[in-house]
Specification:
CATH class: Alpha Beta
Helix content: 10-25%
Number of strands: 7
Strand content: over 45%
CATH superfamily: START domain
Order of helices and strands: EHHEEEEEEH
Structural class: alpha+beta
Strand order of the largest sheet: 1-7-6-5-4-3-2
Number of domains: 1
Shape: globular
Distance between the termini: 46 Å
CATH topology: Alpha-D-Glucose-1,6-Bisphosphate, Chain A, domain 4
Length: 147
């Protein structure tokens, strides 16, 4: 049984105000437009976006059940979101992560700085794939907030 530890930082510019980017995370209606894989819609999804609140999304992905289970630890409107989450797939725990999102106003919109620290269990997931997936999610977020 092994644990692989890894961290990554992604910086992304958005042509949208911090309040609009923040709403992309904070409201279920907006988040539903970009979070996850459209080819595999969730079978259930709960979003309680507040400090101490949880977000749980479950669905079938390539024939197995996938679950994202998050707890929000720190939220400052239009500035910061900090949460931890676990990922399960096919009955196996893949990882546990801590993610912080900082929203910094710029002359043309918002600079988002996402930092993630992860523990990946028993070779069931890998940091490179997680970073790539997170970059893809930020690109999907851009299609919603930069309208």
């Amino acid at each position: 049984m092994t644990v692989t530890h890894s961290s990554f930082v992604i910086e992304r510019e958005f042509a949208a105000a911090p309040a609009r980017v923040f709403a992309g995370y904070a409201t279920k209606e907006q988040k539903a437009k970009w979070f996850g894989d459209p080819a595999f819609p969730p079978s259930s999804w709960e979003l309680d976006f507040r400090e101490g609140g949880r977000e749980v999304e479950t669905g079938e992905f390539h024939g197995k059940i996938s679950t994202f289970d998050a707890v929000y630890h720190d939220i400052v409107d239009n500035e910061r979101i900090v949460f931890s989450y676990t990922m399960h797939y096919g009955g196996e725990k893949l990882s546990a992560s801590l993610q912080s999102i900082e929203l910094i106003p710029t002359a043309t919109g918002t600079r988002l700085v996402l930092t993630e620290h992860g523990a990946y269990f028993d070779g069931n997931d890998n940091p490179g794939a997680r970073e790539e997936g997170t970059r893809g999610l930020l690109e999907a977020l851009a299609t919603v907030v930069e309208i």
